[in-house]
Specification:
Elements (H helix, E strand, L loop, with lengths): L8 H8 L5 E4 L6 E7 L2 E7 L6 E9 L3 E6 L2 E7 L5 E4 L5 E7 L3 E9 H12 L17 H15 L5 H19 L7 H4 L9 H11 L8 H7 L4 H12 L3 H16 L7 H7 L5 H12 L3 H9 L1
Antiparallel strand pairs: 1-2, 2-9, 3-8, 4-7, 4-9, 5-6, 5-8
């Protein structure tokens, strides 16, 4: 492997100003992992410089904070972050996460050298891929990644002399998973033969694009299914496998995320935002936001603009 310096828990601790609860570093592949515990606070604004040598898996392991994520200065998504849902900071991206939490919450970070993923890709495709880019699943659940991360949590909680070697093995397994399911080559012929539906399935991507273009409309599920040539049952299973949510729930969450983005624009009224995002009224938006985020549009706007 290349000897390029990669991100570690110690470098993140210097940027954030506090240390992780536990950390571990592998012996061979420069893979490291850390558990971060954050006490309740009105909000945390955590950012780091871009690191072109490291892909970071960030997985919520306790608590349900509201998480707004920015990549390279642009807001990418905002939602309540449930346990064992992950996001990925791709190599070269400057991350910033704003967390709002009334209860303590904990994160697991896994720092993977990008060269590890590239070398696996070269072994598989014999140099056919010119560039490997990891893609953020944006606070989604991947049962395979979750299972590996649970093993890492076990090693962090009860470490012994074998733990760094275990971290090497688990890091390698995670790198393969990111390549298979969360990268720009996930749908390639060499990887698609044995891959499940997943969120990289082109039909799911097209269905998401269809919904995204019609957030403000009254969308019938059979129209979405017809747009990608699937039955409603197959479409529902595809969404569950790829995102952890059925289509209607995914759509409502995406409408709420869009509304949260627009609430940062003070010239837009809450009523106009509600209609633009597909809610029946401002009260409908307020009710859904209170249920999901335990706050109201007015309070959320005040917090964002403070």
């Amino acid at each position: 492997m290349s000897s390029e310096a990669v991100m570690t828990p110690d470098t993140v601790a210097r940027w954030w100003g506090f240390a992780p609860e536990r950390s571990i570093t592998s012996k061979v592949n420069s893979v490291s992992a850390a558990m971060w515990r954050l006490p309740p606070r009105s909000h945390y604004d955590l950012e780091s410089p871009a690191d072109e040598h490291t892909d970071l898996i960030s997985m919520q392991i306790a608590g349900r904070p509201h998480h707004t994520y920015f990549g390279d200065g642009r807001q990418k998504w905002a939602r309540t972050h449930p346990p064992f849902h992950m996001n990925i900071v791709a190599a070269g991206e400057k991350p910033r996460g704003i967390y709002v939490a009334e209860q303590p919450f904990s994160l697991l970070h896994v720092y993977l050298p990008h060269t590890l993923i590239e070398e696996i890709a070269d072994d598989i495709a014999e140099g056919a891929y010119r560039e490997i880019v990891v893609i953020d699943p944006m606070c989604s659940r991947d049962p395979h990644v979750e299972a590996v991360c649970r093993q890492l949590i076990g090693e962090l909680s009860q470490p012994d002399v074998c733990s760094p070697l275990v971290a090497d093995c688990l890091g390698h397994e995670l790198a393969i998973r990111l390549l298979r399911r969360h990268s720009n080559v996930s749908a390639s012929r060499s990887l698609a033969v044995n891959s499940g539906p997943g969120y990289r399935d082109w039909r799911l991507r097209r269905a998401m694009e269809y919904l995204e273009a019609r957030l403000g409309e009254n969308i019938a599920l059979h129209d979405v299914a017809a747009a990608v040539n699937l039955s409603i049952t197959h479409l529902t299973n595809l969404f569950r496998d790829g995102t952890g949510d059925p289509p209607r729930r995914w759509l409502m969450r995406r409408r709420l995320e869009r509304a949260c983005e627009l609430l940062a624009k003070p010239h837009l009224s809450i009523t106009d935002i509600a209609y633009e995002c597909g809610f029946a009224s401002s009260q409908h938006l307020a009710t859904f936001m209170r249920r999901c985020l335990a706050t109201t549009p007015t309070a959320y706007r005040q917090a964002m603009l403070a």
